[in-house]
Specification:
Elements: E1 7-11, E2 14-17, E3 21-23, H1 25-32, H2 37-47, E4 55-57, H3 96-115, H4 118-135, H5 163-178, H6 183-192, H7 195-207, H8 227-244, H9 266-277, H10 279-285, H11 290-301, H12 337-349
Antiparallel strand pairs: 1-2, 3-4
Helix pairs in contact: 4-6, 4-7, 9-10, 9-11
Length: about 350
């Protein structure tokens, strides 16, 4: 059914259909400044503000003046053109609203079809993720799925040289050599990969979106992530770490004066040594100044597998491979005579069974 074209009274003697109005050049310039023709048309239809739009009638049979050649004609409220508008037998483009309605049908049908073809679904997902990961594609793809590469606004100086960073860089370069840059070629290449390679490529692309970062939560409803959101992120990161069997010691992290011990209080340094080596080891360094304490604590903690709280799983118990009954002596230049003797005397009063 053809929708009736809405009319407006411009004066007492002339009613002109909306689809017979042309914008003046001043309004065309407004469109070029960013207002879409659809938005302008909908605004006219909704509020009837023709008096503010500077329009003029476009009469049948009257040739436009030379100054009017560059004009934009609008159809208001989705109205369909009259049958007699095609007098010149020119095939006009379909109305945009009609195209949108038709493609909505096609989109739903495609969703249903893709849901029944898991391999095609994996191909289209990999195709999109590969463009995001290797070429940083612009928006407008058929699939509204993406992995946002999470960068680190704050990072330690040794992060780029860590085993994890080196492994990621090597894997990325290996894939980058293989991944085609052309859209169609990429699709065909993904379709030919076996299941093992497809799964490995998917895992590599998805990994760039992993975000286990702590950040100060926004308590006042601003644009940043909320305090609850940060807590939820860390909880999910713990679950993910358990699923992949993450062990930060095996990943190459160990406490040093630069990355942890020299940046916390003396109380925390002693606490770390106490957890990993026992009270007696902590007593060896409790008289030192902070810089010396951090350096010596690094030596004592080496090989123990001790981790600070942010690197542990939420439900894990820190376990050291080194017996907490073993007491090590400080280097002579660091040892305080009385403190060292006190520890030694204490050990003599409580003999340790030979292992």
């Amino acid at each position: 059914m053809v929708k009736k074209v809405q009319k407006i009274t411009l004066n007492a003697s002339r009613d002109i259909p909306f689809n017979k109005l042309a914008l003046s050049q001043s309004n065309v310039r407004r469109l070029k400044a960013g207002v879409s023709i659809e938005e302008l048309a909908e605004d006219i239809a909704r509020r009837g503000l023709l008096q503010s739009l500077n329009v003029r009638p476009l009469l049948d049979g009257i040739a436009p003046a030379a100054s009017d050649v560059q004009r934009t004609v609008i159809t208001i409220g989705g109205g369909e053109p009259d049958d007699d508008d095609d007098g010149d037998n020119v095939v006009k483009p379909l109305p945009e609203r009609l195209v949108s309605e038709l493609t909505a049908h096609r989109t739903l049908a495609l969703r249903d079809a893709v849901a029944s073809e898991p391999q095609v679904a994996l191909t289209v997902l990999l195709h999109k993720l590969c463009f995001d990961t290797f070429q940083h594609s612009a928006p407008g793809a058929c699939l509204e799925a993406s992995v946002r590469h999470v960068f680190f606004p704050v990072q330690a100086a040794d992060l780029k040289d860590s085993p994890s960073a080196q492994a990621i860089a090597e894997r990325h370069e290996a894939w980058k050599v293989e991944v085609p840059k052309d859209d169609d070629a990429l699709w065909d290449w993904i379709a030919t990969l076996d299941e093992t390679r497809r799964a490995a490529l998917l895992a590599h692309c998805v990994s760039f979106g992993v975000n286990a970062l702590y950040e100060k939560g926004d308590r006042y409803g601003g644009p940043g992530v909320s305090v609850h959101g940060v807590q939820y992120r860390i909880t999910q990161a713990d679950r993910l770490a358990r699923a992949v069997g993450l062990n930060m010691v095996e990943a190459g992290w160990r406490p040093t004066a630069d990355n942890y011990l020299g940046r916390v209080t003396k109380t925390r340094i002693l606490e770390a040594v106490r957890e990993a080596k026992g009270d007696q080891a902590a007593q060896l360094i409790d008289h030192l100044k902070k810089a010396e304490m951090a350096t010596e604590a690094e030596r004592l903690l080496d090989g123990t597998g001790w981790l600070p709280e942010p690197l542990r799983l939420a439900d894990s118990v820190d376990v050291s491979d080194t017996s907490t009954d073993t007491v090590e002596e400080l280097p002579a230049f660091l040892a305080d005579g009385e403190a060292q003797n006190a520890v030694t005397d204490d050990v003599d009063r409580h003999p340790i069974a030979a292992e």
